[in-house]
Design goal:
By secondary structure, the chain is α/β, with parallel strands linked by helices. Helix content is 49%, strand content 10%. The N and C termini lie far apart (63 Å).
Length: 416
């Protein structure tokens, strides 16, 4: 896996791991791969994080392989509920194929068509050394993408796969255009793996025609088998902590693994959190039968436990979390602190709160600074349903507005 997915390498093991015997190891994905220009973002931290614990999905990878083999070009869309593993699948495929990629993130500039076109355009122009100018102010539309993809098709001597994750998080005005202004048809030799939430959750996309769609269902037996493999691997990698937990709670590894899979309701994010809580001893007085049910059930149980056991809940933990919700984009620890002359959220307290919430945060480095953002959109949606978060959120918004007004008045007073 590491050799196949290492940045800048040819995809040595794709024939065995992804594309099977029909498409050879060097026949897709890394055509003329040069280093992308600096302003392209390839989401390396996110990809590394998700690939590290990726398991299974053979049935989806095989279906994608067959699609690449049997079609001359086109879109392959995977739909699935929040937390089922769509982003991890995207990261794995992007890593294995060394594919140009864009991960849409709600509430950030990475959710807009403009930044998608800038980012994917810069990657493709750099990789394929296209005689095409980078997208400019007037190029954020479908016409530019059509020209770009056709230029790639003319230049590449083998098929090219793009990865675009989380179409349901795109911030785009309603209209006649397709989501992200994706061309209605991709030229021969150009493919795209897309992901989104299901239609049933209110995410009906404006898709190009002829998109191949695959629903990753929570109750699919193949999904349950992948979850069981994930839990078994985690237990094996953390055997000392897990064995201590099962002995304390008078159960067995097998019984606990079965319970986690059943209680997960097919959700990988649930399993990700619960196995870590068990290993770390954060769950008290549990039995396999009393584990929370489903991702929302886990969030409720964790929320109640934090409120009950954290002395600084009201003054520190809740305010830091609310500020992460209000910002809804990557921020530094300094962005979360109160001004030095007032407030209780000192750097020391903010760092302590970030450590408490670490399992729910995505850490990255941007422009040399460490940033933090809520790890998963489903957790943010859960938080927005909590009355105390809504109250604190409104208070924080008022403080932000008043602070901005005070700053503007102070600058006005200082003008000569």
């Amino acid at each position: 896996m590491d050799e196949a997915g290492a940045p800048g390498r040819r995809v040595v093991n794709v024939a065995q791991d992804v594309t099977g015997a029909v498409i050879q190891a060097d026949s897709i994905g890394t055509v003329n791969a040069g280093a992308a220009p600096p302003r392209a973002r390839t989401f390396d931290d996110l990809v590394a994080d998700r690939v590290a614990e990726f398991v299974g999905r053979r049935f989806l990878l095989d279906e994608l392989r067959d699609f690449l083999r049997d079609h001359r070009g086109g879109y392959f869309l995977v739909r699935g509920e929040p937390g089922i593993g769509k982003t991890s699948l995207s990261a794995w495929v992007a890593n294995q194929y060394d594919a140009p990629r864009h991960f849409v993130q709600a509430g950030t500039h990475y959710s807009t068509p403009r930044h998608f076109i800038d980012n994917i355009g810069t990657q493709l122009i750099g990789r394929h050394r296209l005689a095409l100018p980078p997208p400019g102010p007037g190029d954020h539309h479908g016409g530019y993408l059509e020209d770009l993809f056709h230029a790639v098709a003319r230049t590449a001597d083998k098929p090219v796969l793009l990865v675009v994750d989380a179409l349901d998080e795109v911030d785009q005005p309603a209209g006649r255009a397709t989501t992200l202004y994706l061309p209605d048809r991709l030229p021969d030799g150009v493919f795209a793996l897309l992901t989104s939430r299901p239609r049933e959750t209110g995410h009906d996309l404006a898709l190009p025609s002829g998109v191949h769609q695959r629903l990753l269902a929570h109750d699919d037996p193949l999904n349950a088998a992948d979850l069981a493999e994930y839990v078994t691997r985690y237990f094996a990698a953390h055997s000392t902590a897990i064995d201590l937990a099962v002995s304390r709670h008078r159960t067995t590894r097998a019984e606990l693994a079965t319970a986690v899979v059943e209680k997960s309701c097919g959700n990988f994010m649930y399993a990700h959190h619960v196995v870590r809580d068990i290993a770390a001893g954060r769950l008290q007085d549990w039995t396999p039968a009393t584990l929370p049910t489903g991702l929302a059930g886990y969030y409720r149980a964790h929320w109640a436990r934090m409120r009950r056991t954290s002395p600084e809940w009201t003054d520190v933990l809740l305010p830091v979390l609310v500020r992460l919700v209000v910002h809804d984009h990557p921020v530094t620890a300094g962005n979360l602190c109160d001004p030095p002359t007032s407030g209780t959220l000192t750097p020391t307290r903010v760092w302590a709160a970030l450590d408490k919430w670490r399992e729910f945060l995505h850490e990255a480095r941007e422009h040399g600074k460490r940033t933090y953002q809520l790890y998963h959109r489903s957790f943010r949606e859960f938080l927005l349903e909590q009355p105390e978060v809504e109250v604190a959120r409104e208070e924080q918004r008022e403080r932000v507005v008043l602070s901005a007004l005070d700053g503007a008045l102070d600058r006005a007073r200082r003008r000569p």
